Amino acid sequence: MESIIIKRLSAELMDDYLDFFDHRAFTDDNPNGPCYCTSPNQSEEEIQQMVSEFRTSGVKETVRKYAVKMLQQNRIRGYLAYDGAMSVGWCNAADMETYLGFVPEFARKNTCGKTISIVCFEIAPEYRGKGIASALIQRVCDDAKAEGYAAVEGYAKLSAERNDFDYQGPVRLYQKAGFTEAARENGQVIMRKVL
Are 184 and 158 in contact (CB under 8 A)? Predict the structure, then answer.
């Protein structure tokens, strides 16, 4: 494995993004797939419309179609991790205010200033445990600090074992990156790093 490179998603990386979700994401029968990380930036109405199309077009095809449209509109934001020229990981991270969902309401009430929210991770199964999520978090924090943000937050579920909420990242991942608990409610914890 070459050294991992982290790149912020841009229009030029759309094909790499789609290639990752087409061929490497959720290949371990993860219950969160198929997914192209569209939901965090969709309204409830858009999600319902997308779901209504699943029967006629298929789940993966429909979600991919919505992802392409959203990528063209710059509505999906985050970072891709690369091993050489191949995208092997994803982190959905952006200004808290850009998320229509996925940021818990109690987090919005407990802010400490302008905040970047990390709402989702997906790492290709064969690349897990190699520090890619940590590298993604570090890049998010570096960019957020350079852009004048007060903090970066993640919203981990409290659980002792891997479950379907792992896409938000476990508490220990954030702790390792210097985040601390800011608040908790209903089994979810705001992990925050003040910049």
Answer: yes
| 158, 114 Cβ separation under 8 angstroms | no
pLDDT digits (tens, 9 = 90+) for 82-131: 999 999 999 999 999 999 878 999 999 999 999 999 999 999 999 999 99
**CB-CB contact of 17 with 78 (8 Å):** no
Residue 185 binned pLDDT confidence (cut-offs 50, 70, 90): very high
Q: What is the pTM of this model?
A: 0.92
Please check whether residue 142 is in contact with residue 120, taking contact to mean a CB–CB distance below 8 angstroms.
no
Task: Identify the H or E element spanning 86.
Answer: strand 86-95
Residue (of 71, 86, 193, 70) closest to 139 by Cα position? 193
Q: Which fold has domain 4-194?
A: Aminopeptidase (3.40.630)
Tens of pLDDT, residue by residue over 55-75, are 898 899 999 999 999 999 999
Indicate the burial class of 174 (C-beta count within 10 angstroms; 0-12, 13-18, 19 or more).
buried
Whether 76 contacts 8, CB under 8 Å: no
Cβ-contact 18, 97 below 8 angstroms: no
Domain ranges for the chain: 4-194
Which element (helix H / strand E) includes 142?
helix 132-146
